[in-house]
Each structure stands twice: as structure tokens, then as C-alpha cells.
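Quick check before the chapter quiz. The format below is the same one you will see on the exam, so make sure you can read both the input and the output lines.
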Amino acid sequence: MNLSEFARRRASELLGRLAFEVRNVCAKKDPEAVHDLRVSIRRFTQALLALQPLFPRRQAKRIRRRLRAMMDLAARIRNRDIATGLFTAAGVARDAPVFSRLAGEREQARGELVRLARSWRSRNFTGRWRTALRLRGRPTQ
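Here is the expected output.
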């Protein structure tokens, strides 16, 4: 296997992991699901950037833009989770208004993230992205 084949295989594996995490974030409400999604987005994005010469420029840029949109939604959720943890560690009472506000904002952002994730899945994002990037491997959804 040459370097190009290895790199494409690795990018395909990272896309498969991203697909798993997109599915997972729809099913689970816990902070770990959001964190894992963010990690998979970051890793796949970094692969697209590091291996840029291997992929069609326009398609890779379009995919990175879509990944950024999902990452922004996931960051909104993660920021609320971190703030909740900080307030808890500071000894703020759980019945303080700030907790209900953060919970409401988190749920709103999560709803938007799940809608986007389901939209991606309904349009077979992994199959489309594999084709656009000329990756091999079985499409996973």
C-alpha cells in the first residue's frame, strides 16, 4: 500500500467514525456524546486539511464548511455543559435561575444539532462525501 492509499483509507475510517458519532448524538443526551462528536469532527477536518492534495479542493472545502456548522452547534451545547459544571463546582445552588436558563439553552441547541444530524443522515452524507472525496469503503449510516 502506498502513502496515498493509506491516507485515503485513514480518511475513510475517520468518516466512518464521524457517521457513528452523528448517529450517537441523536440517540443520547449526555455530554459525552457531544464531546465525542466534536472530537470526530475535529479529527476528520484535520485529515482533510493535512491530506489536502489528495482530495478535490472544492468538495473538501464544502465538506469542511458543513462540518463547521455542526461543530458550532455542538460547541453551543458543550459551552452550556462546561458552564453548568463551573457553577456547580463554585457551589451555586442547583435551583438557581442560571441552571434552568443554561438547561433551556442547551436543549434548544441540542434540538438544532439533532435536526441537522438527522438531515445529514437522511441525505446519506457519508456516501455522498465518500464519492466527493473519492474514498473507498462501505458507506456507513
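If your answer matched, good. Residues 6 and 12 are 10 Å apart (CA to CA).
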